[in-house]
Amino acid sequence: MNPKLIGPEFHSLFQAILALSTIEECYAFFEDILTTAELHSVAQRWQVASLLDRGQTYEDVARATGASSATISRVNRCLRFGADGYRLVLDRLNSQEPG
Fold first, then answer.
1. pLDDT per residue over 38-59, tens digit each?
2. How does 59-96 read in b/e, with b if 16+ C-beta sit within 10 Å?
């Protein structure tokens, strides 16, 4: 975990996120806390991570998401050498999928 991301302000934010119970609550909270551009950027990174995890090429990911090669590379680096946050959620979601 990045020590620069440890502090009461981050803990409070993450506790707030963990308090959300439904997709609708997430929409409302994130619409309020992030700008539209920030929310699009976060959603795009998540989509990039998901596609890379499924084995898509950078070219395919760029075409599907509109993400720059720098963004795709950054997300891929996090998938391979990061704090395993993407991996944790991808694995949990994949285990919930039928079949």
1. 999 999 999 999 999 999 999 9
2. eebbeebebeeebbeebbebbeeeeeebeeebeeeeee
